[in-house]
Amino acid sequence: MFYYLLKYVVLGPLLKLLFRPRIEGLEHVPDSGAAIIAGNHLSFSDHFLMPAILGRRITFLAKAEYFTGPGLKGRLTAAFFRSAGQIPVDRSGKEAGQAAIREGLGVLAKDELLGIYPEGTRSHDGRLYKGKVGVAVMALKSRAPVIPCAMIGTFEAQPPGKKIPTLHPVAIRFGEPLEFSRYLGMEDEKAVLRAITDEIMYAILRLSEQEYVDQYAGVAKAEQAEAKARKAEKADKSRRFRRTPQD
């Protein structure tokens, strides 16, 4: 009930009014039955803009950190995400990927829409990163079509770290459904899963027109943070050992 209150009364009308998103290819989203909407992930706003323009309810797999914050604020945040149709997924540990797949297949088994970001995390620089193969496993096991989706302009409206979005033109593009029946029964073949995932990511890339990076976003973020830390350490050492001019 709260999902539809947010969609039609609270957040939905507000988001549409502020961003006036341009929608393309909405006819590719089926009116009924299970389907996976796989998109790029540029902004925190993505979680709410897409549901606001879809005629059907969509459930996203969201990081567990949104549901485990401390204090009253944490409890309110968790309640909000659950009411908005988000399912918490623990992204740490060896079993994290399997847990996400189980949750996703549960949504699809009910003939609902599942929203997933194959990159696994928000892009920190606006580029499109390598997809993880969980989306391929779910597509094969559920036999659900995959609809590629591109969010455009949300990175500029609300980049990572920015709490309040700014007004910026936004577009949401849906591509033609992808089906992978030719690979049925091959969900344990790593090469097959990689090929399916790459096909999905290429479809997203064509819609979004982003620059593509053949590296996992999490790895790229870690490398960038490490490089930044080394640079800061080097600058600190330089300041400490800089010789002062002699009179």
Overview of this protein structure:
- The strands form 2 sheets. A 7-stranded mixed sheet has the order 1-8-7-2-5-3-4, with helices on both faces. It has a two-stranded parallel sheet with strand order 6-9.
- It has 247 residues and is α/β, with parallel strands linked by helices.
- The protein is globular.
- The protein has helices at 2-19, 46-53, 71-83, 96-109, 134-142, 154-157, 190-208, 217-241, and strands at residues 22-24, 35-39, 58-63, 86-89, 113-116, 128-129, 146-152, 171-174, 212-213.
- α1 crosses α2, α4 (96-109) runs parallel beside α5 and α5 (134-142) crosses α7 (190-208).
- β3 (58-63), α3 and β4 (86-89) form a beta-alpha-beta unit.
Gist?
This protein has eight helices and nine strands. With 247 residues, it is an alpha/beta fold. A seven-stranded mixed beta sheet has the order 1-8-7-2-5-3-4, sandwiched between helices. A two-stranded parallel sheet has the order 6-9.
- Total beta strands: 9
Class from secondary-structure proportions:
alpha/beta
- What are the segments in which pLDDT stays under 50 over at least 5 consecutive residues? none
- β content, as a range? 5-15%
Radius of gyration, Cα only, in angstroms?
20 Å
Considering DSSP H and I runs of 4 or more, what fraction of the residues is helical?
Answer: 40-55%
- What is the overall pLDDT average? 85
**Number of helical regions:** 8
Largest sheet: 7 strands, mixed
Order of helices and strands: HEEHEHEHEEHEHEHEH
Strand arrangement in the largest pleated sheet: 1-8-7-2-5-3-4
Approximate shape: globular
